[in-house]
Automatic annotation (TrEMBL):
Keywords: Signal. PROSITE patterns: PROKAR_LIPOPROTEIN. It comes from the Bacteria. Residues 1-16 form the signal peptide. This is Excinuclease ABC subunit B. The lineage of its organism: Bacteria, Pseudomonadati, Pseudomonadota, Alphaproteobacteria, Rhodobacterales.
Length: 125
């Protein structure tokens, strides 16, 4: 999930104007903290964490014919992702969630100033 959000942000930032990029940068850390908090709260509710594990494997397929008429095989490296459960210390997850809430409040308070700085830096946008 985090990887998809990061990829989306990168794709959006590639097309963004300097003003839009400034606004994206201003909001990025708060968005990351919000995603981490959501993950911690889900871990607390479930009682365990869920981790994505990527596994590589070789995929073999027929990719042509040899001079002797037999099939030619090629190999391509592929991967798949699975989710695995992991035990967590619920009290530690709660402490981390509390820290993320505090960090989120601080970043929210700073966000208006960062947005104003973007507007001042790129007037008329």
């Amino acid at each position: 999930m985090k990887r998809a959000a990061l990829l989306s942000a990168l794709m959006l930032s590639a097309c963004a104007s300097p003003y839009e990029q400034c606004m994206i940068d201003a909001e990025a850390e708060l968005a990351e903290v919000a995603a981490l908090l959501e993950q911690r709260l889900a871990n607390i509710a479930r009682g365990y964490a869920v981790e994505e594990v990527e596994t590589d494997y070789d995929f073999r397929y027929i990719c042509g014919t040899l001079d002797n008429g037999r099939d030619k095989y090629c190999t391509e490296e592929r991967s798949y992702t699975t989710e695995e459960s992991r035990a967590v210390d619920i009290e530690q997850e709660k402490r981390m969630a509390d820290q993320l809430v505090a960090r989120g409040k601080m970043l929210s308070a700073r966000l208006d100033a960062d947005r104003a700085a973007c507007r001042a830096r790129f007037p008329g946008s």
